[in-house]
Amino acid sequence: MGNMSSKEFFFTGLSLSNTPNNDSSVCVIDRGKNIVLLDKLYFTSDIELFFEQNPYIKNSQITVSIPHDNALLEGKWRIHCKNYKMMDETFEINRNNWTNRLSNRCSDILLRLKDCGKKVSRFDVNLLRQSYGLSAHYLQRTSLDCKSLQSALKIKFGFDELPENMLPASSLEAILGAMFLYDCAMGEVKSQKLFEYEGLEVLGKR
Fold first, then answer.
1. Cα distance between residue 200 and residue 202, in whole Å
2. Rounded to 5 degrees, what are φ and ψ at 22?
3. Cα(166)–Cα(173) distance, integer angstroms
4. Where are the alpha helices (H) located in the chain, listed in sequence order?
5. Are strands 60-65 and 24-30 parallel, antiparallel or unpaired?
6. For the whole prediction, is pTM greater than 0.90?
7. What is the pLDDT of residues 168-203, one digit of tens each?
8. For 53-80, b where at least 16 C-beta lie within 10 A, e where not — what string?
9. pLDDT 10s digits, 78-108
10. ∠ CA 114-13-194 to the nearest 5 degrees?
C-alpha cells in the first residue's frame, strides 16, 4: 500500500468523529482534482451505508482519519496521564479504557471494505497537516483555524470550487485526506507507512 499509484478514478477521504454526536465528513475527488462530493455523516449506520451504496466507492481509494478517544475519565490524574501514555503500553487494570488515546470507531466496517478488495488506509489529521505545511497557527478547529485551512486549500492547493462561507472543520479534514490520496496516485508526493492501527496501515507523506 506504500505505492499509491493506481487505476482508481476517485479518491475518498473521511474525517471520522469519535461519536455520532459530532459530525463526520466525506470528500470524494476525481482524477481531475475536482471535488465531486462533500457531505456530512453522523451515525455509524450512515457511514456504513455510504460505503456500501455510494457509486463512487466502487472505483475509489479510501482513507479515514483516526479520531482521538475523548471519553470522559474519572479523576484528574487520569485525564492528564492519558495525554502522555505510550500507545504500545498495556495495563492489566484499564477500567473504562482510560489509557486508550485513539478511538476504534468504524474499524470493523473498514476491515470489511479491505476484505472486499478495496484500497483502504488511515491517516492522522495533525501529521498530514504538518507535512503539507498546514499546521495550525491558531487553536485547532476554531473559526480562525478553519478559515486559514480553507483559504490554503483554495489558494495554495487549487480547490477553487470551495465556497466563501466557512466549511465545517471535518469537511476540510476530509478534503485533506482525499487530496493526499490524489497526490500519491498522481505521483506528486510519496506515502509511507507510519504505523498500523486496527489492521490497517496509517499512511503519511514522506
1. 6
2. -110, 150
3. 13
4. 44-53, 76-82, 107-115, 125-131, 143-155, 169-185
5. unpaired
6. no
7. 999 999 999 999 999 999 999 999 999 999 999 999
8. ebebbeebbbbbbbbbbeeebeeeeeee
9. 556 656 555 555 555 555 565 677 889 999 9
10. 70
